[in-house]
Amino acid sequence: PGAGAPRQRRRRRKVSCFSSIQLFLVSECALMLAQGTVGAYLVSVLTTLERRFNLQSADVGVIASSFEIGNLALILFVSYFGARGHRPRLIGCGGIVMALGALLSALPEFLTHQYEYESGEIRWGAEGRDVCAANGSTSDEGPDPDLICRNRTATNMMYLLLIGAQVLLGIGATPVQPLGVSYIDDHVRRKDSSLYIGILFTMLVFGPACGFILGSFCTKIYVDAVFIDTSKLDITPDDPRWIGAWWGGFLLCGALLFFSSLPMFGFPQSLPPRPEHAGESEQAMLPERDYERPKPSNGVLRHALDGDSSTGCFQQLRVIPKVTKHLLSNPVFTCIILAACMEIAVVAGFAAFLGKYLEQQFNLTTSSANQLLG
């Protein structure tokens, strides 16, 4: 018993370092800032990916939509079951998954051949800014069919890899926002909840600006700058044949996501109540003995299942449609959801291709278009 007492005191001191909702807010803000940055960075390099891998506009549209596909596939289950689990750890795991997705997004550059551009003079005219006139003599022979087939196969593989990476990013982002907001709402006074959540979503707004600025910086660097001597290049970022280092931003975002996720693993499942605010709190706080137990969720306390865990899981799955129907029967909630969907639809409809429109319509470089969007 004597030897175990110091160990328990050390454990309390170790937990108390993270027993602050303010520290959790800072950690959550950092993670959501990194999430918003990587999402906007993808949009900033879509035209670069289109030229680098010879993709169509529909292809890059699918890549941009893959994040939402992965997010929608699990958001309902993670939000429902995650509220009964260790929310900070789930958020941290989601951040690690997002970091992996960001790193996988940069992988196609290292799996394909170096970028080779055609030598020639740019012909600015009705045919568009992406047309080059060859200096040398032209040949009547067409391109090698085998070479075209090999290039198309490699392009398809890189295309699928980019889609998978974005789906992974969407899956990782699933627990970050809903569980983070609920964790903050459960551990602050009701009158302070809007302030904390407002600070949280402010960071989410700054994320896209950081992503476009990062995209503007990375697209000024040549795509193969780490492999070749860029002083021998005869093209500049103003040349439509220029391909920027689109992969660099994904590596940086992956590192930011990884390191911003690590503090989440130090927070307890539920923070201890603060005695100085116990009388002022308008929300039910946990008693001291329930320090590691989750708070009530959806009005029902979490009980340990003594029987078969799989049976309990199936029972919970059967409850989800009933809970969803109950929520949708609330007219205020339904109107807010519909308004949010319409707002997102307006932005998402043109945000992914606004950069390409600026480049093509006003003859801007990718870097300049990203600066305007940022």
Q: What is the CATH class designation?
A: Mainly Alpha
- How many domains would you count in the coordinates? 1
- Rough shape? elongated
The CATH topology annotation reads as Growth Hormone, Chain: A
Distance between the termini: 60 Å
| Multimeric state | single chain
User: Strand order within the widest sheet?
Assistant: 1-2
Output mean pLDDT: 79
**Share of helical residues:** 55-70%
Q: Strand pairing plus helix content: what structural class? A: mainly alpha
Largest sheet: 2 strands, antiparallel
Number of strands: 2
Q: Could you say what the CATH architecture is?
A: Up-down Bundle
Write the CATH homologous superfamily: MFS general substrate transporter like domains
Strand content: under 5%
Spans where pLDDT lies below 50 across 5 or more residues? 123-140, 277-308
Radius of gyration: 25 Å
Subcellular location: Cell membrane; Membrane
Keywords: Disulfide bond, Ion transport, Membrane, Transmembrane, Transmembrane helix, Transport
Pfam family, one: OATP
Membrane topology: Multi-pass membrane protein
